[in-house]
Every structure is written in structure tokens, then in C-alpha cells.
Amino acid sequence: MTTSLHARALGIAFTLALGCAAAPAAEVKLRILETTDLHMNLLSYDYYQDAPTDQYGLARTITLIKAARAEVPNSLLFDNGDLLQGNPLGDVVAKVAPLRDGQVHPAYKVMNRLGYDAANLGNHDFNYGLPFLRRALAGAAFPYVNANVYVDDAQKNGPDARHAFTPYVLLARELVDAAGARHTITVGVIGFVPPQIMQWDKTNLEGRVVVRDIAATARRYVPEMRAKGAQLVIAIPHSGFERVAGGELAENEVAQLSRIAGIDAILFGHSHAEFPGPDFAGRPNADIVRGTINGVPAVMPGRWGDHLGVIDLTLDDAGGAWKVTASQASIRPIYDKAAKRSLAAADPMVEQAIGAEHARTLEHIRGQVAVSSAPIYSYFAQVADDPSVQVVANAQRAYVTRAIQGTAYEKLPVLSAAAPFKTGGRQGWGYYTDIPAGPLAFRNAADLYMYPNTLKAVLLTGAQVREWIEMSAGQFRRIDPAGPPRQTLLDESFRSYNFDTLDGVSYRFDLTRPARYDGNGKLIHPESHRVQDLRFQGAPVAPEVKFIVATNNYRAFGGGNFPGLDGSNVVVDSPDENRQVLIDHLARTGAATAGGQVNPSADGNWSIEPVPGVALTFRTGSGALKYLARHPSIRLVKDNGDGSATFEITP
Length: 651
Known about the structure:
- The longest helix is centred in the first third of the chain and has 20 residues.
- Strands 8, 9, 11, 12, 13, 14, 15 and 16 form an eight-stranded mixed beta sheet that branches. This protein has a six-stranded mixed beta sheet with strand order 6-5-4-1-17-18. The chain has a five-stranded mixed beta sheet with strand order 28-23-32-26-33.
- It folds into two domains: 335 residues, Purple Acid Phosphatase, chain A, domain 2 (4-Layer Sandwich); 277 residues, Alpha-Beta Complex (5'-nucleotidase,  domain 2), CATH 3.90.780.10.
- It has 15 helices and 38 strands.
- It is 24% helix and 27% strand.
- The protein is of the alpha/beta class.
- The radius of gyration is 27 Å and the shape is globular.
């Protein structure tokens, strides 16, 4: 190399070095906000009690959203799904005054004004069927993503399978660093829904769509998103945080997603829990201080807008590409449960946007259906036969009895399976059915049956009926007759909507025996039988005798993993909603009696066997105190002062 060429090369290198020194790596702070499982709680209004509430509602979350945005220069807002169904407002828009083509769904009248960046679909968003879902989504001014639902056609299992929805989006966003410089960053957003929608909404979805595994789908598309320019990838699974891997097509896959390279943050939901939070302390690979799962920042902000999810990311491009160098996830509540006070005022924008739909819903829920001769409440529904479950079981049984007339099944006995829906727990100690004796309005029926399930009936043997009840018996903890004089009765991880009681037969639970099934329907103690003295009309139930059992589409098609229930033995496939069946039954029964009265009192067809020397304790809402005199075998132990009370069933 000549001297002049060498000097020129040195000069170029020096110039480049000066350029690099003059343009150091940039650092950007980005805040990601999440709402999830709103279930149409747009206003802070309890339609089942027909009263305002300060404990949930997007109207109050908006106040937190505005505050969180004002604190930082850069933010993005996402919703995780389970938006369109969940309360009477959602039912009115879908069923009573159905949304028409070109109309904007009230949820999007609100959310469009908030400027959401993208949203994911939850399992309950499919409850009203695909045509309604697509009609509603047309009104959203922001993109929806779902990567694991495909069109059910000839290509569904091949490489050319078509997505039913947009699998992911790449959002170009201009972010500002601390020095005021602007940087355009491409944010990839991908969404997922539980594969179990094919069971839970079989009638709506079968033959139309198919669903693939969440984690497997992510492993396919996250690298593709990166290859197409995503510099930051946010996964929005409508899925919970599992303790152990659930295998292919698992419902809850957040821990699995956190192990997939290329995902920078996870916004999750579905299980209505709060992450990071004390309920996840000790969970493997979870850091509830930083809010990470396997090192990936993650957040799940409860349900119904009672929390806002916040993830703060620090990004820099020191290595030539944007990387997350620090993170902090947290949840912000709208209500202080300990102090019992609101932390966020309701934003008036929501009522301004959907006042007409709210008024229509109030008119709908206030219409009288019948008159109840006794109170209907669910405070003791998990420990004793219960009026809130009894009235539903009665309605289902009457419907199916009429439906099988003139068929090959008309001479078979009809049973009815029903479960309590409002039993406090993760929804709070005020979350119970509590209807005084007197007029029953539509809103009361909606309180008794919250979901838009459709009525089904299955053909079972006596042996299968017994196994159904054995699965329900997993709600109870095992009681040691030689153990402490007070023992906890309920397994609080067991969902009360899976505690089916079967009306039309009588039986008792022997809880000194271990549960026959685990929560996933796996037979774990084949030798154990908690269900004792199972009888029909006073006679022992023979294993081979046939029954027709009324239930709902969720259970009939495998929801809850109950043994013998997979959709193959459905004999009444009704399109009628269980809730409407209940309303019609109350109206019909009331019309046939003086004063329009119905009697919802429980018939006491099941009970828990006493354990000598052991009192069985449980917690429920303190509202139960006013009904305690109706339950002579139950005694108050302590009013806990937090809206709950501890009771015991005495031997």
C-alpha cells in the first residue's frame, strides 16, 4: 500500500470512529399496558345486583391507563380477550337487540377512543358464534391477532392451512429516547386461544375452524416475525400459567411460551388471577418481585378491569439491534380490598359512549319473570344442597323431560346436572347469588345462570352417573378421622363450576376416602369411592341402568374433563340457552300457581357424611350469616372482617 493510500485509509477509519463516538447506542424506555377478561364490564355496574360498583369496570381502569400513559413518553396498550361475553350487556348486544352489519359494538365504541394498539381473542369471544364475532370485530379500529385457529377445510392439516384470523401483526412505532431523539421500532404482536374452544363451543365451531397447540404455533411463527423485521415480540396468550407442562393442546401454556426464544414479553389472562402477585409465590421459575417467568417479563391483571397490567422495558441497540436490557412487571388495582376504598374514579367517557346500550340493558334486566316464595342464595352451595343450583336443575330436567316425549328415550328417567357459578373465591367475597324472596326479574335469572351455554342431554349408565359425581367430589379435601378436631373441607383450587350435583338421584359423600379423580379427570385412586348410597327413587342405582342427564354444551362436550363425557352420547342437542330455559321455566311455573309463585328450596338429595370427632370448616361470604338459621348443621366459627366468614359443619 502506498503512503497516500495508507493515509487515506487511516483517515476513513478515524472518521468512522468519530462517527461512532458521536452516535452512541440509544436507550429507550417502553411501557406496555394490558387489560384482560373484561367480560363486557365496560361500566362500573353490577347488572346482577342492578347497582353501581367501585370494584370493577373498564370505566375505572381507564383512569389508571391515562395515569400510566402520562408517566412515560412511550407506551402501547393491548387487550387479551374474553371481552364480548360475560354479563347482560353482552347478551343484549348479541341476542336481545342483535348487532347489525355496519354497527359498532359498544365495547369498541369505548376501546376505539382509548387507542388500543392491538388485541387478542379469548375463548368466551366465540360463545355467540363466528358470524357475530366477525360482525363485532369489524367495528374495532385496531388489529386483532390469533395464530392458532385455522379454517376447517381440505388444507387444515397441511402447510397451506389458512388462518381464521390474522396470526400476528408488525406495528411500526416511533419511540423517544431520554435525549429526545426518535427511533422507529417494529413491534411484533402474536395471539393465542385455548384449543379447548373446540369442546366448549363445539356447536358454534365444529366444521368451521380447527385449533392447533399454542406453544407449537409460537415456535413456528416467532422466528418468522423476527425474519420479517420484528425488533420486539409481544405474545398475548389467552392462557394461564401452568405448574407443569400439560402436553399437546394444553389449555394453559404461558410457562411453555416463556421458554421460546424470541419472545420479549408475555401478556396473559384466562384464569382471572393476578401476576405478579403473592398467589404465585414459590411457583417454579417465577419471580414475583420483577414479574418474570423464566426471565421473560409477564403480567396478568385479574379480570373485569379490576387491575391494569404494566410492563416497563428498557431497550437499547448497543449490539446493532434492539434488545431488552431491563424490565419490571406490575399490576395496578382500581380498588383497595383491605381498606375497602376505590383507587380510581370512573371515566365519564364510557357512559357517554354506550349510554343507550346501558339503558336498554337495564330495561331488559328489570322485567319481572315470577315470584319466589323463598330466598335464593349460593353461600353454602359447595357444602350443602342449594336453592340457587336446585332451581336451575329443576328447569333443565323439566325441559328435557318434554324434549324426549315421543322419542325412543321417553321412558328413561331424567336427571339434571347443575353447578354453582357464584361462590366467591377468586372473584371476591361479595361474589354470590343473593336474591330475597319476592319478585324475580330477568336480572335474577341471569345471576343464577351467568353463561350463554346451550342445553344438552346425554345418555349414560348408572355406572357413568356415579363416575360423574365422583369427579365432582374432587372439590373436597380428604378428611382424616384420626386427625385434628377441625379440618378444612374445600380444595380452593377446584373451580366451583365443576362441582356438578345430580338432581333426581340421592347420595352421600364419604370424605375420609381420597378423591377418585384428579382435576384433569385422571383416575388416581381406582380403589376409592367417595360416592355412597347412590339411589334412584329409593332403590340402589344399578351399574347398567340407563339415564338421560340434562346438562350444558360445555360439560356434554368434554369441558372439565369429566369421565364419560366427550360429546359422543348427546341425545338432546338443543340450541336453547340454559339461561333462557330457566327463565321460561320460572315464568311457566309461576303462571300455574296463585300469585305467580315458584318454590326454589333445595330438596336435600345429597349430603356430606359426618366424620365423628371432626368439624369440617370452610369459608364463604359473610352475607351467609342472615341465612344461617336455615342450616342447623352449620355453625359460625368466625366473621373474618374481610367480607368472608368461617363456618363449620359439626359432626
